[in-house]
Amino acid sequence: MSSHSSHGAVDLGAVQAPGFEAGRKLSLVAAVVGLAGALGLAAVQEGGWRHLQFAWLFGTMFFVTLGFGGLFFVLLQYITRAGWSVVVRRIAEHVMSTLPMVTLLLLPLVILAMMGNGDLFTWANLDKIRDHHPEELHLYEHKAAYLNGTFFLIRFAIYVAIWMAMARYFKSGSLAQDQDGDPVRTLRMQRVAAPCTLLFALSITFAAVDFMMSLDAPWFSTIFGVYVFAGSFLAFMSFLGLMTQRFENKGYLRGLVTPEHYHDIGKLMFAFVFFWSYIAFSQFVLYWYADIPEETLWFRHRIEGPFKDVSLVLLFGHIFIPFLGLLSRHVKRNRFGLKFWAIWLLVMQAVDLFWLIMPNYDSHHLHWPVLELLCLLSAGGVFTFFFLGSAANHALTPVKDPRLAESLAFENI
Amino acid sequence: MTDTAIKGVPAEDDPRHRVPLAKPGTTLTSITDIVAGIPERRATPKAWYVAFAIALTLLGTLGAMIAYLLFTGVGVWGNNNPVFWGWPIVNFVFWVGIGHAGTLISAILFLTRQNWRTGVNRFAEAMTIFAVACAAIFPGIHIGRVWLAFYLFPLPNQMQMWPNFRSPLLWDVFAVGTYATVSLLFWYMGMVPDLATLRDRSVHKVRRFAYGLLSLGWTGSGREWSRFEKAYLILAGLATPLVLSVHSVVSFDFAVSQLPGWHTTIFPPYFVAGAVFSGFAMVVSLMVPARQFFGLKDLITINHLEVMNKIILVTGTMVGYAYAMEFFIAWYSGNPYERFAFVNRAFGPYYWAYWTMVSCNVISPQIFWFKKARRSIPIMMVVAVFVNIGMWFERFVITVTSLSRDFLPSSWGYFRPTAIDMLTFAGSFGLFFTLFLLFCRFLPMVAMAEVRTMVPEGKPSHGHGHGGSHE
Amino acid sequence: MGTVMEAPMSNQDKAPAGVLALFDDVDSLLDACRRMRDAGYTRWEAHAPFPVHGLDKAAGIKPTVLPWIVLVCGLTGTGCAMLMQWWMNAHDYKYLISGKPFFSVPANVPVAFEMTILFASFAAFFGMLALNRFPRWSNPLFRMPEFRRVTADRFAIVVDPADPKFHAGAAFLGEIGAKQVLPVPADPSPAKFPVWVHMVGSLVTMAALIPVALIIRAHYVTSPNPPIHVVPDMDFQWKDKAQTSNPTFADGRAMRKAVAGTVSVDADVDPNLLSYQSGKSTMVDATGTTYRTDFPLPVTKELLALGEMKFGVYCAPCHGGSGYGDGPVHQRAMALETAGWIPPVNFHAETSLALSTGRLYDSIVNGVRGNMQSYASQLPTAEERWAVVAFIRALQRSQNASTSDLPQGMQPKEIK
Questions:
Q1: C-alpha distances in angstroms, B117 versus B304, B307, B379, B396, B454?
Q2: What is the ipTM of this complex?
Q3: Which domains, from first to last, does chain C contain?
Q4: Which A-chain residues 82-141 have CB contacts (< 8 A) with chain B?
């Protein structure tokens, strides 16, 4: 696939994004309405403030994990010097650039933990543990060296700083290349991407431990970071497929994105459906088989009682059904097919996060997740605001990337 | 766009082009001549005979050790209370791990369109099969009464018993069995067009008969290629999850138990990363002399080796991540046994094995952050050998430290291998190299059909201008 | 057998097996393919030494059905694996291993997964062979020296005589850029296998069936001969059985007497402590056995504490902490509705209260026929056994106390 199509072939009119003013306004409205609704509901509901904290974590984590996926996608393309993905890489760059902002939505929860509020992070209030679960106190005291408010805040700051630095570096490099088309930028970013990936792996692992695993502080699993990563990347690929189609429907990227690119996005979705299943099964079967009470308790909350239904939804909806659904190449190359499975898998990512987070709130009851959805709406508004803000007034594809021609001409076998 | 080179950047790194993988000037004819020329050589080189004699000696040692074991009993090994899983399982996991690079190269890198794989995949696949064969020996002889090995399989037997499907050891039988079978099919199927080339070039009747028999009547017609490519794609798609599953199932042997240091959820992906890591190291350490010796430098260039070294760096770092996570969670879990198991690994009686493992696996590949090191033959040979040593020690550390000191201090012990243990392991290299040398001598070492598609002659120019085409 | 025997080409009279056109490069091949396709040729093949990108389209080759075959076989593999695991472990040969269910999906996933892959891979490989009609060792093309480079660095188109436009093929191929056009000579080898091949084949098949037949026969026929021990394992061991002779020893006895001066483990134990049938006071129970009813040693607080500890370790699992015969083992048996389960003795039943101390000691040392094993090895000293007996007595007293058992001055006063 050498050079038979030059950069001049890219119609700049088809890639230049507008200011998205209406969309950004609408997303701000959604954020405010969601937040107001959630606050209102929490105020009238009994124990609502505690519920709100869980719901807020759930809503925000959905978009944080999308950001993880976007950041990793960009890093991966540079590390592997990928050619096919250049056309859609800019969308990933915009998703990535929302990550620090959306993560900041978790700040109130971090501050609450610092102030010793043990509603969400039970480890934040050892007195409560002493009163209600004295048998677990020694574990909490042991972990207090890591799980304590101050260190939590420091880690939070580190995560935000790392993600912000990485997102800014790669986005600004890519945007600058739009102007000067300097291939040396690509080389430099390729070099930086490798150590960044290491940093990324460590930061999301510990972020996953902090924000989701530590909700059930006595429980532990070494694979947890990989589990969250697998779900994040799957959700991001689905979002990428969906967003690319959306831009195309709006008249952008026409003639640049071909079924070949959707096919590849679909393949990565399929691969990560399998990878997620593999990681989820590994985590489950090792604990199920050894049957040690302190390890199985976490799963008991999720496979006994009302959350059993959620587990079954994940088993079929996150593993078997999409696996069979995405098997065929025709589905991946079909616009409706890809869109359907992208939406399906995004819903499943939400269900997965719900399954991870909400049993810690109350594993004995399952309600209609109204508060959760309001929080999701609010966080989604913030995400969309920054996503569109990042995309506004820039080209929707890296127009002078040295590998753009390769991406445009690329064909699957 | 001007094509002037960027200052200080070698051509293969220029993001504006993909440089051809083979050396410039390589043609369809030269590929065939180079690769098919090796098995066609009339006189076998002397060095080959020397290597083969050494390999056969080691193979004989393996045979003698197994015979001694069978006539005497497993007491000839160092396996004893409390370490009943000694070197045999360490060697088994080591060899199975080596056997992961081949399928990874032929399947996963095929699916991710890493074209450089075409130069090395045949070689790596062959290595995979021989490594799995070596691996299969160890559980086979470890069962004590080898003549009852058929109990491993769900075969009707005189006791009217069936195996226990809830045991991870039985899963292993299925996983390794399936892996060996599928790898063999994959390797053989990919070789059929090349065997047809050898058939059509051979002058000698016996050779023509043998290669004719093996190539199944391949003519290279469009329909044959179409079905072949589909089957290859499907096998690649099947082998990808398979390659993940095999070492995961091997890790289940350890991880479903309750033993501290074994029972941890990251084991499956961690074992897979480690397996790929050791497999690539083995490919590099065999590839470097082989390309030198058989004159394959035009087809397997330093660029190929550099990419493999990058993969060694990536997987080595993944393994380092898993070591770190294990330590962190061992502390975080608050489980005193788990914590002890890890402190014991690093500072207990096997500290020497642990630090050998860490320095070989995690520290030594870090030199590949530097491009110069990635392209230096001596450095990559040293690192590849280090990695192989380190990965063997990783399995040793996992198996022996956890078993030798578990819950009851009164039952602690210290494992010592016997000379028989060591000679058996050394002998398994004899089997590996015997098969490998035979492969190098008689079969096409590089996938000619695939490499042909990588040279300019093998790429159809997009013939939109030609008359009569209306796609 | 084109590959095998280079038979002389003496078949000029037979009709040709096709026409072969050679091309030098891939672009002219693709171009020729498009023109063949557009000219309406239907029975022809393009040959290349590597998979040519775009050849399927140019030659009008339809996608293969292979993926569907693989899918069906893969799912068959999953089904077979699940069925096999269920049938073998949960139906035909049930046995409990570390409390795992007989059939449990998580534990059966790995094997099911591997079998899926195995079946699907076989389908992909053998499906490809079958669709390509492989193996096909005899092919007229293999006789043509010109064809040999087509698996290395040349390209070819071969038109089948069955093509309706075959007669015009040679000329057309020349027009569309073929470097060389040649007739493919027909295959001179006979269409049928020689008779001797059939003969040898049948003989080998029959010979191969003999061992199978012998095995089947052995399954149904009984024999007075001892079984053949291919591998003796530990069937025949060098050891002396009881009451046999061994010429090694002067007295010819295989069983040796104790070495002079050997001291029995019970040697210096007070015989009174070990005796449970005679003591200061005895009784004859319903079975007519005499048992002592006293204790051979002073019952102290320390003895009772020892008894409590040992009772908790060895007796409570069945008899229950309070001796009501309701220990966790019993409860588990009840929950599982174990057939033939005999409940442990309740020490507070009337019959139990009547048991003598000697009888309790007897049960500990010798077990109770059919219900309880001997605990002699768990409670190796007489003190420990008597301590348990004493503790059982204390338990019985505690659960069946009357007001008169209370110490002097603590009896409740009668309410008037």
A1: 8, 9, 22, 31, 11
A2: 0.93
A3: 1-188 (no CATH), 271-398 (1.10.760.10)
A4: 83-84, 138-139
